[in-house]
Amino acid sequence: MTDAAADHFDLIVLGAGTGGYTAAFRAAQLGLRTALVDEDQIGGTCLHRGCIPTKALLESADVHARMKKAADFGVVVDGTVAVDYAVVAARRDAVVKRMTTGLRGLVKRSGVEWVAGRGRLEGPTTVRVSLAGEDGTPGSGGERVLRATDVILATGSRTKSLPGLVTDGVRILTSDDILRRADLPASIVIVGAGAVGVEFASFFHDMGASVTLVEYLPAIVPLEDAEVSAVLERSFTRRGIRVITKARFDTSAVAADDAGVRFVVSRDGEEGSEQIAAEVMLVATGRAANVEDVGLETTQVVVDRGIVVVDDHMRTADPHLWAIGDIVGGLWLAHTAAHEGLIAVHTIAGEDVEGMDYAKQPRATYCRPEIASIGLTEAQCVERGIATRIGKVPFQAIAKAVIGGEYEGFAKVIADAATGETVGVHIIGPHATDLIAEGAVAMVFEAEPWEIALATHPHPTNAEVLAEAAMAVDGRSINF
Amino acid sequence: MTDAAADHFDLIVLGAGTGGYTAAFRAAQLGLRTALVDEDQIGGTCLHRGCIPTKALLESADVHARMKKAADFGVVVDGTVAVDYAVVAARRDAVVKRMTTGLRGLVKRSGVEWVAGRGRLEGPTTVRVSLAGEDGTPGSGGERVLRATDVILATGSRTKSLPGLVTDGVRILTSDDILRRADLPASIVIVGAGAVGVEFASFFHDMGASVTLVEYLPAIVPLEDAEVSAVLERSFTRRGIRVITKARFDTSAVAADDAGVRFVVSRDGEEGSEQIAAEVMLVATGRAANVEDVGLETTQVVVDRGIVVVDDHMRTADPHLWAIGDIVGGLWLAHTAAHEGLIAVHTIAGEDVEGMDYAKQPRATYCRPEIASIGLTEAQCVERGIATRIGKVPFQAIAKAVIGGEYEGFAKVIADAATGETVGVHIIGPHATDLIAEGAVAMVFEAEPWEIALATHPHPTNAEVLAEAAMAVDGRSINF
Fold it and tell me: Residue B203 in contact with residue B211, Cβ under 8 Å?
């Protein structure tokens, strides 16, 4: 296997995360001879260090939170309820293992050739792979050179910290570190209140830890609609999560030792400051694209502010080199990477497919209450000068949510007043992440709100909130 | 208030169930002067004796079932878990009361005139109402005659038993009886495995009762796709619910006394018989439309086999008399009644709206696993000579379902091979009742499966099962 004679493929996909394997499987379905190269296991960040293990943890937290309220439902515990975090962590790992095994089976069935090793471009359509050895040791299996008509780069991203703040894996943690731990801290301070930050805040609080959430911007989940952010902050605060927005602190003055983590935070525009102390800190301030050591310097690829530049069909400046997923920035979401992958392979296969439109990509955050959205926020409409008509209905008007006992939140449908078309759907509340799929279908069909409402929503379901909000755009909601 | 001088309205809606109040509220929004007449509270069967109290019970059962599995999630109970059925029943009633209060507030805001009393037609557009007294006593408030340009009948339905089987409210119960009880039987036999029967079977089993489910037809949930029925029967049987299909028994030989209910059942086409004994029997064999004592004999209305005949815009044989909801048969579902109501009022208001298409109405059953569907089953396609292309993906391929720990079931998308259009969506599994709303939107747009898949479904969600099944129609699923 040290032979470096080139194999030729129709397509090489470099990186086997969600975007990469989706692209590879579809390419094979379209008849392309395809190689999928990764030094790591199939599934990438999402499966191994992201969505899947996190959601497995959140599911345990949900069970715990629900048990604490079980008496309301007539289910009475005579005794104590405790978290066995070793079991929580083991279940998290078992879920990941199960899905990984499933994907491995799919690779076999797909006809895609799996190449285990680290790939590096040598020019736009040649990949030199440093193969893993029999025992899995990186590089010990020699090298293999692959050539292809087209190459898709899908090398993903990694956690990144703030300037001056060094994560040590013990006191100052990345989400990767959290997802390897098998113990629960008594207290945690989370820096960054994007999707990752609020999910872990919700999780650790539901698991019984003391949680402080620190955000630089004036709102938590700052990319969401402002009303969503407000409801989540209120919910978190009411539950006892300490939320500090407009936070300013000196990263170089963060003390981390055996006693835990301590630092002083102030709020922008406000007097005074406060001391934050916790057993550990989670730094959830974003990710960096893996654009280094990929051999981009051997290609025409343009990297701008750490991101590979592509057109709306995912083509780089090199006509046969494509890029998808976190390395192209966008939304840093697995399902978006998959969609980008599909656009790329269908285009490579010679089909005329619609280009990438990030306004039609749903976003999902699995804190409690859940958040999901698609399209523009109200503020974005204002920025773009789009006159809007808005319908907003709270979950407390929805029988199924009341039945479920969790009815914080709302659905909000935003239509362009000029065209009538739905331009944004925002949901915070029960099952939001499942409900937004309907919004995605509506967006594909450029639905007006009344058309969403024309679809009969079964009663009683949480999904009714979308129909009611859609009708509310025209002042015609029924149950609110 | 004994004055019988006629008041004139644009519209009188007779019956304030889901269909009736939806029609009335929308009529008011469209500028029609509207009266809503009912002797009972607003909300009808669904809110008071149907969906809502049942789903409240099922929610408690879900909490109980989830607690029994909590240790799998790392949440450990040191002690015992028990059901306090008085609390379960009180919560059920509190949910109903809360939603009723909400609707009362909406009546006030709507501008609809609420007329509390029993209405009877005197000709197609006159309603004589026997008013409730100050204390609520029916009829003691005298009479009032209302006239209107149009009248919508929405008098609903009631439980019905099998010929020869008399429900006594003690041992042989209707769903109404069950929903009034504040105690849990140790054992129950349920006759009829439609939506009501399987929901109560699932509920009582999850609450710890011994359950026998008896169905005349060869399959439980016989209106659903055969593969859905098969999965549910397997799931029920595995959980320990005794399922007897093709059941035959002599209704007149059912013994009901202080010891409970006993009868002998055989299976059609099979030798032998078995003795069934339980504390109580639930008769869940369908409903009868309330077409009596409404004054239909004073109109041209045609009643066929107990059902009011209407056209696809809900117009009866009398041009200004309309009928919606359970009295027109159809699907006997609250949300369908509401949709019928909307079609009627928009037509009355002079708009040209699409007629009723029952193939675009979703159906939802809240047993565990949940069932939801829209459009045609595979068998119905065969009957109608529709050549099909089918995609079916199990929930075990869906990461979020695996995370949730309940991943029995599948989604199945059926397309017409000739037109490409989606003609049926069938889901059994987690959150099915919420997920089917997406199918309803897709049906409104006559979506082909690839268009459903073109909508990016957020990852990881249960909703992905629909995208995968839609892609599977073209042999292009990614995660299965």
Answer: no
